């Protein structure tokens, strides 16, 4: 430090908030610099958003949903009229892969039972264990039927 400069001036140059010097004290910077709270908040929000985005990007298929036999299938599962436990699950475009479409329709059925009854236990009427030649397949969809087991 150059001679002639007091500690108070050096502290001011460095951005420290120095405590006023009273009799008998030496001039020393006592306080640490205060961070800009809005900057800390912005950095925290950026980190939070980045963490959320990383957590949402868990699908390896580009966000298109799960793959079955290497393919993605659109599908749904709906209750049979009058009985919530019985459902019909479909997978679209079975021509991509009958095996994949069967797995996708079974997945839709399990999701339906989990969301409706809290369990994935299913008594299949026409299910993934049904021989491929006996599956109800049209040009546009494959259909499975089952009944959710209530807990």
Brief account:
By secondary structure, this protein is an alpha+beta fold. The protein contains 3 helices and 4 strands. It is elongated, with a radius of gyration of 33 Å.
Question: What order do the helices and strands come in, and which of them pair?
Answer:
Layout: H1 7-13, H2 37-56, E1 75-80, E2 83-92, H3 98-117, E3 122-126, E4 141-148
Antiparallel strand pairs: 1-2, 2-4, 3-4
Region (Disordered): 60-81
Structural write-up:
- This protein has 151 residues and is an alpha+beta fold.
- It has a domain at 75-148.
- 31% of the residues lie in helices and 19% in strands.
- It is built from 3 helices and 4 strands; from the N terminus they run ααββαββ.
- Strands 1-2-4-3 form a 4-stranded antiparallel beta sheet, covered by helices on one side.
- The longest helix is centred in the N-terminal third of the chain and has 20 residues, at 37-56.
- It is elongated and about 100 Å long.
- Residues 60-81 are annotated as: Disordered.
């Amino acid at each position: 430090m150059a001679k002639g400069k007091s500690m108070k001036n050096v502290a001011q140059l460095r951005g420290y908030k120095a405590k006023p010097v009273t009799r008998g004290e030496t001039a020393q910077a006592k306080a640490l610099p205060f961070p800009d709270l809005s900057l800390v908040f912005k950095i925290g929000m950026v980190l939070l958003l980045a963490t959320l985005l990383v957590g949402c990007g868990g699908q390896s298929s580009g966000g298109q949903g799960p793959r079955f036999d290497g393919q993605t299938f659109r599908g749904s599962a709906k209750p049979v009229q009058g009985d919530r436990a019985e459902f019909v699950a479909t997978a679209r475009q079975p021509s991509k892969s009958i095996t994949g479409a069967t797995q996708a329709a079974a997945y839709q059925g399990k999701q339906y039972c989990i969301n409706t009854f809290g369990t994935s236990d299913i008594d299949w009427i026409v299910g993934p264990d049904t021989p491929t030649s006996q599956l109800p397949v049209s040009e546009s969809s494959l259909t499975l039927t089952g009944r959710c087991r209530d807990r």
